[in-house]
Design a protein that fits this description.
Blueprint: H1 2-17, H2 27-65, E1 77-80, E2 85-88, E3 97-106, H3 111-119, H4 121-133, H5 143-160, E4 166-176
Antiparallel strand pairs: 1-3, 2-3, 3-4
Helix pairs in contact: 4-5
Length: 177
């Protein structure tokens, strides 16, 4: 038993001193080989990552070069309501109101639609007042909610028009208090 302990201690000393072990190499050389291998693997990863990023940059550049920017469309004809809208909201807990100045955008080449908008001014004001009166204050806080209001007004007005459609609703002023 003592002989075995002596052999184990001798092997430990050999490993620490860098003396060759059973395979003919020291443990220090093995560690150095592993370290070199890891460094080569890391360098290889950086080289591969560089070439992949360069390739994707050139592909992005080629894609951007093929995009054609279309010219801006012709401006819409504008129909402005002469009076501002001032309507109480549907809130029951506290009194609030909406004050708004509104315009419509439409195809400026459609003179029949322009005449129809003029003739239907009172009817359109009535529809807009009803739509606004059905809204609560918290339904008109975010820009998305205001865009939804514009879309709702646009669809309600387009339902009554026969000579064309309005293309846009512009809030020149929109106050919710």
């Amino acid at each position: 038993m003592a002989d075995e302990e002596l052999l184990d201690e001798d092997q430990d000393e050999d490993l620490l001193s860098g003396a060759p072990i059973a395979g003919g190499r020291s443990k220090l050389v093995g560690i150095l080989l592993w370290a070199v291998g890891i460094l080569v693997a890391i360098a290889l990863m950086f080289v591969i990552a560089y070439f992949v990023s360069e390739n994707s940059k050139s592909n992005d550049y080629r894609e951007t070069q093929s995009i054609v920017i279309a010219p801006a469309p012709a401006p819409w004809g504008i129909y402005r309501f002469q009076k501002e809208f001032r309507v109480n909201t549907a809130d029951t807990d506290e009194a609030h109101f909406i004050q708004m100045t509104l315009s419509f955008g439409f195809d400026s080449n459609n003179k029949q639609l322009e005449n129809e908008l003029i003739q239907r001014t009172a009817q359109m004001m009535h529809i807009i007042n009803i739509v606004l009166g059905g809204k609560k204050k918290e339904e008109l806080i975010t820009s998305m909610q205001k865009q939804n209001l514009a879309d709702e007004v646009k669809s309600m007005i387009n339902m009554i028009l026969s000579k064309g459609k309005i293309e846009a609703v512009y809030f020149e002023e929109l106050i919710v208090s």
